[in-house]
């Protein structure tokens, strides 16, 4: 058995998993912090100094946890925001100083493969039909992977909840019908590009990952507070996703913030994240989505086994 530490640094959050790995993952520590590393990257092409500092502050805390738990192997993976940034060298230097290892700025395809591994390891209990379409809705990008036991095809496109919010809903409280229509057109164009390269029509089960999807599940379950155990492997129908998306897009910031399941760092981007899920289900014809709390972070941990 090997004790590993996986760090996933995305556009909206930075997450840590310390786990013992053998034939299964046994969590020792699982943490998530909203840092909004991708703040403004879609417009400026650079990581903002204040966003880097927020991220490094949380990473220093993670480094202390890794040392306390005695992890033997550490892997840091950075995704969409860092891929797109001209000043990624500043991010790399900070990570090396904190963890003593160089972060891997992975391609969208590798990100998709790691997400697929993390998400599908424990789906067998549900006996879902294969192949799967695994969809990881991140802050800057969304990954699409079709496969059964292995990845058949994958593609990453720039339609994340932070990117769509900054591009279409910035300052909206709530967004107007015209702003929503603009976001829908943007999302649908990218979904058409995915369909041209990934055989989404062959997939029998849709699996949704990351905070936008899990938050929609929490709302659907009527939870008073976020509960990972109840959310993991839950199922949401297309009609439920459509209804929740419609309601979220009509709410003000304060109304969303008052929801017990809503993380403060997700209040302003959940409408766009839910809309991405909604459009995926409409465009690809899925009647339901299986929600997984396991994703790229678990895939990184498995890669260290």
Automatic annotation (TrEMBL):
UniProt-recorded name of the protein: Exopolyphosphatase/guanosine-5'-triphosphate, 3'-diphosphate pyrophosphatase
GO molecular function annotation: pyrophosphatase activity
Transmembrane residue ranges: none
Record-linked PANTHER family: EXOPOLYPHOSPHATASE, EXOPOLYPHOSPHATASE 2
Highest taxon of source: Bacteria
Signal peptide annotation: none
InterPro entries referenced in this protein's UniProt entry, alphabetically: ATPase_NBD (IPR043129), GppA/Ppx_hydrolase (IPR050273), Ppx_GppA_N (IPR003695)
Chain ranges of the Ppx/GppA phosphatase N-terminal domain: 20-295
A Pfam family the protein falls into: Ppx-GppA
